[in-house]
Design goal:
CATH superfamily of the largest domain: 2,3-Dihydroxybiphenyl 1,2-Dioxygenase, domain 1
Strand order of the largest sheet: 2-3-4-1-5-8-7-6
CATH architecture of the largest domain: Roll
Helix content: 10-25%
Shape: globular
Number of domains: 2
Distance between the termini: 23 Å
Low-confidence stretches: none
Oligomer: single chain
CATH class of the largest domain: Alpha Beta
């Protein structure tokens, strides 16, 4: 049995992604056609990439925004310790931890070059 997840230095997995687009409806059609993804409607269009595929994938969403970008969300054991560590290494905390009702606790940082990364504690 692997001890990867019991070690304090286990690799933290990407558990979610977000695609922000100036024209979210057009992006939804692009990704539906390109990857055969099932993508919902509404202001936050949920993407379920795992069900029905040979290999399960992580889920995500598309939403409208002023700046096109893709963000990833990484699972950690201790969100507060991770935010402190990110700041000590030159990152910036953008959104402090908040609990999603019935779900995970999430926060957002930017790395030293300004890339947005979501932090997830489940």
């Amino acid at each position: 049995m692997s001890t990867e997840h019991t070690s304090p230095d286990w690799a933290r997995p990407v558990v979610y992604f977000s695609i922000e687009a100036r024209d979210a409806d057009a992006q939804r059609e692009f990704y539906r056609a390109l990857f055969n993804w099932g993508i919902g409607d509404g202001p936050i269009m949920q993407i379920s990439t795992g069900p029905g595929s040979p290999e399960a994938g992580i889920n995500g969403h598309i939403n409208a925004g002023a700046v096109p970008r893709v963000s990833i969300y990484v699972q950690v054991r201790d969100i507060h310790a991770t935010l402190e560590r990110a700041e000590s290494m030159g990152g910036t905390v953008v959104f402090r931890p908040y609990q999603i009702p019935g779900g995970a606790m999430i926060a957002t940082i930017t790395d030293p070059e300004g890339n947005s990364v979501g932090i997830v504690q489940q």
